[in-house]
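Here is one chain, start to finish.
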Amino acid sequence: MNKGGGQSRLSAPACFRRQPVRPIPESGMHSERHRLIYLHPPKTGGNSIQSVLLPFSDDRKVLVGHQDGRDRFEVRGPATASKHATLADYASSLDIAAYRVAISVRHPFDRAVSFFFSPHRWMRQTEDGWSLATPVWDRIFSCLS
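Its structure:
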């Protein structure tokens, strides 16, 4: 309790305070034959699912920048303009009511940790190509102290 008799509120460190929610783009994959649209929000294990679905889809794997084609890749196809195609993007060119839509999910905290430790965050383009910058781990640990 505080001096006025009411309960005092503890203040959480800035890194744990509620932040405005931003929409997360989905990554897309489309199969006309199987009438399937797969949406892949980042950091939900969707690259593994897309790798399995790729032979059955109308899309193809594309490499851009530092991507290795195994863990990091883009997806393109007749109805998939980019890996981050949304359901609305598909709706603009397909009758999505005729498709089954699948999406992968993951706990938000696990996604945030995965994003922070993801190697692509530390890739930097140099004159000689791409290199891995030294990660700045103290940014996450400073808010815990």
